[in-house]
Amino acid sequence: SNQYVLTAAHCYKDQNTTGFLSVRLGSTNRTHFTVDCHQNAENIQNLERSDTADKHDELEEQVICMEVDDVCIPVQGNNCADFMIDLALLKLKRPVNFTKRIQPICLPENCEELPSDVSIYAAGWGRAYDDYTFSDETTGGTTDETAEYSYDTESPTKEETNDNSASETESTLIFYDPVMLMARNIPIITNEECTRQLTRRVPKYTLCSAGGICYGDSGGPLMYQKEGRWYLAAINSALRGSCYHPVQPAIYVRVSHFVESFIEKIIKHHKGSQKGGTNDLCARDEDRQKCVREFFNSYNRSIDDEISE
Q1: pLDDT band at residue 34, thresholds of 50, 70 and 90?
Q2: CB neighbours of 17 closer than 8 A, spacing ≥ 6?
Q3: Which of 65, 105, 130, 165 lies deepest, with the highest CB count within 10 Å?
């Protein structure tokens, strides 16, 4: 759709209105953003009225910031702490014109399982790390480039350190916040294996991986390519422990399990009427807040910490 965006419910901070929300489209650079969404939206509308080639090229390159008209989060069950249905469907205030930089992603068929012969990728601006190895023969000091982007450091455990050769070597992890959008292949594990590692039954709508994501990737997509098209497999939800040493599998919400029961129903409702009537589809605001807080308490993180990352 050209008017809906799917993300994680826990990214929708503890607010009662959508006034603080906006959706930025058309950029892979985290620092390339629009300061004023209202002004930017007006500029895009003016560009759309022009038929000149120059204006068309300018529109194609434009990063736009869209205001959000409505947010709907699925009605939750009694499993908010461990396996919250961590989805939020955002309706934009107006449709988006697709360009070479702004394109939709395909949704899978309802309850469709992941194809077994495809690679799964995650994308986001979440925390990343590099493993720097140095020896006693290396000149001391940290380069300016490393210092500029370093976020945190972590040393490998003894079990991860190989026997040193004649030249003593050490390594350390340098964490940083990337400017450009990052992507990587994600090692998916079965729900049976995930249940064994988590020591509690994993619901069918949950997808698990052996790490691969980090803080700040929340709400981002798991994607796969099939017959030349990209499909949305799941939405990134949560990870326990450090990104480099996850103590448990990362969990995601399978989009296919909510195509008919949630996504399509909300879109059809919006097309049929302007206000009201989604009480049986969208969680009440107080229920949403309660569920999100239970979710964060379970993962020993605060809402403010997650939003800031």
Answers
A1: low
A2: none
A3: 65
Alpha-carbon span 180 to 145, nearest angstrom: 16
pLDDT bin (cut points 50, 70, 90) of residue 32 is low
Distance CA 3, CA 87 (A): 16
> Domains in the chain, ordered, with CATH?
4-125+180-308 (2.40.10.10), 128-176 (no CATH)
pLDDT for 204 = 95
Taking the C-alpha atoms of residue 67 and residue 94, their distance in angstroms, rounded to an integer, is 8
